[in-house]
Design brief:
Chain lengths: 314, 278
Amino acid sequence: MFHFILRRVLQMMLILFLVSSAVFFMFKLVPGDVAAVRLGIEQTPEALAALRAQLGLDRPLIVQYLTWLGGLVRGDLGTSYVDGAPVFGIVASRFFITLELVLVITVLSALISIPVAVVAAQRKGTLVDSGIRTLSMVGYSLPTYWWAILLMLLFSVALGWLPAGGYVYPNRDFGRHLLHLILPTLAMVLILVAAQVRFLRASILDIIQLDYVRTARAKGLSSRRVLYKHVLRNSLAAFITVVGLNFATLIGGMVIIEQIFTWPGLGWLIITSILNRDFPVVQGAVLFVAAIFVSVNLAVDILYAALDPRIRYE
Amino acid sequence: MRRLLRDRSTTLPLVFLLALLLMAAGADLISRYDPLDPVADPLQPPSRAFPIGTDEIGRDILTRVIYASRITLAVGVMSSVGALLIGVPLGLLAGWFGRFADAVVMRAMDSVLSIPPLLLALVMVSVLGSNVFVAMLAIVVVFIPHFVRISRAEVLSLRHQEFVLAAQAVGMPTWRLLLGTILRNAISPVMVQFSLVFSRAVIVEAGLSFLGLGAQPPTPTWGNMLNTGRGYLYYNTLYAIIPGVAIFLTVLSLNIVGDSLRDRLDPRDASLIKEGNA
């Protein structure tokens, strides 16, 4: 077990190193001189040189690269071009705003998909099952941005029940904070539930055919007991990896939802930073998202191995 | 393929996709309006002349929806084909040569996968400039790993089978073995993957255009129309709804066809595991 985790951690660090290098060199491809763009029409040769020196742009590329890597090791993601604040602090504060939304979405969608998938698998081939399958196919194909607009159209524009967007700090007014949480959550949950039901239903049906399930039935256990004790427990191990992966993807995948509902999280930060050409923030945020993704991935793998004794740590 | 055509559940989606293709090809024949030039007063409600109304500068919205299918299909097809043409050979090489080649390719793919698809595309577009070619390139990069994985897995499961060993023993050159024998066996999972990637490429392309980072106005795309339309919800709700319906039906049809392909070609496939929604 120890070697398994050690190997995976080393692998994870390698991936983060690759991503950070790719991110660094990609932003060096941006056409034009960052310093010149920032100075705009006020540029004089002296001011340009001073800014280039201040940003470290006058040093050789390899030195800039090593400085950037060295900073990363110390948790220093650089400073924003816009206000000079440390990128790490900016990204972290926005991260928690996204995290709240993503946690609510993840938990809710898992709680809904489990019973729905169980019902569909139990009644395989019936009208209920094909209804659920059709619905999940539809949900799975819904483009988030369109579905979000439809929800907004119904609940904000037509009915006027929910705010169309925005964010209220929880310590200012918790009730209104929750109210603003509802639409973005609804927009994501259906789509996630659809994907997860598809997966879990298939996985339950796969396991039901296995020999040990037949043995359990032959032993005289009730089909209920077999389903919950033997089948569901095993499919849930795989299900957790899917939920974990979806969670990790959502952290950086909320760009459009946050944009539509003006939710000031990471995705919103990334879009506005791209539009402001504030590249250190974009780099930092992307790297942060990748770090979360590989860590969650690792955690999920370890959890999976712990839950399912058939997985061997080679 | 014949069985796919006989499957009742795929009839409707296939008809829809075919109609879409014809619509894209014959857009000029279907609509008598110009997609780029104003033809009437702006923001007119739906009427007999303009079934979905006119947009903010007086162009016929329906005409623009029809023309937009060209961008979607072109970007979807070309970027999925691009990802396939790069991903499959990489997967074959990684799986066949193992060790160093495998480690290099797979860690690179892990790195690509560690960033959500839309975000990765977004970053590439922001660096290289927002136009339709960069968007296409970004989508290619995003989906390469899907093909690498599938073809690598196929090589790994085949390379110790007797017919492969036999071909090696009689001295068949490696490239012929890979491109002939192995690839022929890998074709069905790759096809299934292609249909899934295609539908996701459509979603990512529309997402990029929605954020203003795909094909630039005045070129109509479903994504950028949806985004503009959402600013006029109070004037004409159909403006925001119809382009979305188009994206949705296209993706749904591709998914249904892809699903049925999978059931047919490759009943035990775990590729669903890694399919989060962008």
